[in-house]
Amino acid sequence: MSKSKIYSPEELNSFSKETLVAVILSMQDQLSQLNANMERLIEQIADASNKRYGRSSEKLDVIAGQLELELIFNEAEALTETLYVVEPAEEDVIQVSRRKRKGKREEDLKDLPIEVIPHTLSDEKLQELFGPDGWKRLPDEVYKRVRVQPAVYTVEEHHVAVYAGKDNQRIVKADRPRDLLRNSILTPSLAASIMNAKYVNGLPLYRISQEFLRNDIHISKQVMANWMIQCADRYLGILYDYLHKELYRFHVLQADETPVMVSKDGRPANSKSYMWIYRTGKIYKDTPIVLYEYQRTRKADHPQEFLKGFTGVVVCDGYSAYRKLDRENPDITFAGCWTHARRYFSDALKALPKAAQKTAKDTVAYEAVKRIGAIYHLDNQLAALEPDGRKKQRQITVKPLVEAFFAWVKEIQSSNRLPKGKTLEGINYCINQEEALKVFLNDGEVPLDNNVTEGALRSFCLHKHAWKLIDSIDGAKSSAIIYSITETAKANNLNPFRYLDHVLTVLKDHQDDTDYSFIEKLLPWSDQLPEICRSKSKTTNL
Questions:
Q1: Which residues sit opposite 63 in a β-bridge?
Q2: Residues 406-438 pLDDT 10s
Q3: Domain definitions of the chain by residue range
Q4: Other C-beta atoms within 10 Å of 267: how many?
């Protein structure tokens, strides 16, 4: 905007009435534009602040203060667009005061080993209290406490017997087990513990090195980094490739990507690389697969190559790389993410100043979140159905709400009454993604959103705030492989450390094999895995 001319009192007094009117109208236009720009900046600042410090919930009662929510009680009311609800975000924890369930502690501790520690009175003390033979033993009062035994490190000193003929013409050695890495102290359990610390718990290698040092073990972060690269390349890469082929068996996949910094990739400092993630659809709960892939760019060629030969549906956001995948591959259908669409409107509500929250219900953003919430509410009621039944019911109950939503957003867009901002961005996004956002209506296996993939990415995104960057391209590629194995293990409710220990133990004994059929027994859902690999309790993505 050009700088406005400042008129002196003398100049204003000399203007004609028509000139003064023109000046005032021009100033009004400039003021209106300044106010609009200021409102956009305030929204952007509030949005950035909320993303950094605020709650991630997209529930209406959180994002717009203590706003009242209505519930859908019947389809007729829903179709009149008067009552809508929002489904709970996966990360929300609803705190409800309830009585502690009896026996919960015993249930929580039932899979841990028990050491009975008796506490008794001596016979002398009992005689003092009750007299000779004046007592009887009642059932013990039993309570439980949990004791932690820190990690125990043991040096395996292997002694290989050596034999020689008495004529000294022949020397024979006993068989020795295969090493994980030649001339290295690394064992499957040590490698698994480092992988678990870094890729499951998010500890940088230098912190792991410091913890080893506190236990009198000297292993530098450089040595550990080299171990991780070699183990991923030599062993876990075999399992990764097998899982990649398994991925193609499924009709619905879900994809996403996130930036990552790699310091030694031959480009200027602070250049962005990307970690892409591909996951089996939410519906396939018995055999979930989560695969990461490192690439230096965000180009459409990467998903194109990774999914080469795949036939089915890919659920993702509206990024153009996925749209290109859809356009250039007739066997692939692109399905949109309703959570991504809703986020524009929920962000607009979160950015409202406190004074404006009182009238939040009158905003387009609030109405959009309500309408999308109604779609979620009805679709969530179909979760227990088989795909064919879900598709049929979606056509009957959900489709009318979806069609009404798109008719409404098109009406809002055509009215041209929205200023630039999150709400307008959301309206435009929904219209541009209409075809993709409707795919779920015609396929019972397609979910409403891409939340499970974002959940699988959450560990990586949290961890990269701790270690900041990856040192090399080899390190990034190995990280993608190891994250794939650990996240797939977690998705299958396995204990990542025990699973990695088992996988590395088996793979090191098959170093020279060309037949990889034995990998079937190592798949995370295999019934031939040792029982110790399975988690007794349901875990989270974090």
A1: 65
A2: 999 999 999 888 777 888 999 999 999 999 999
A3: 339-447
A4: 13
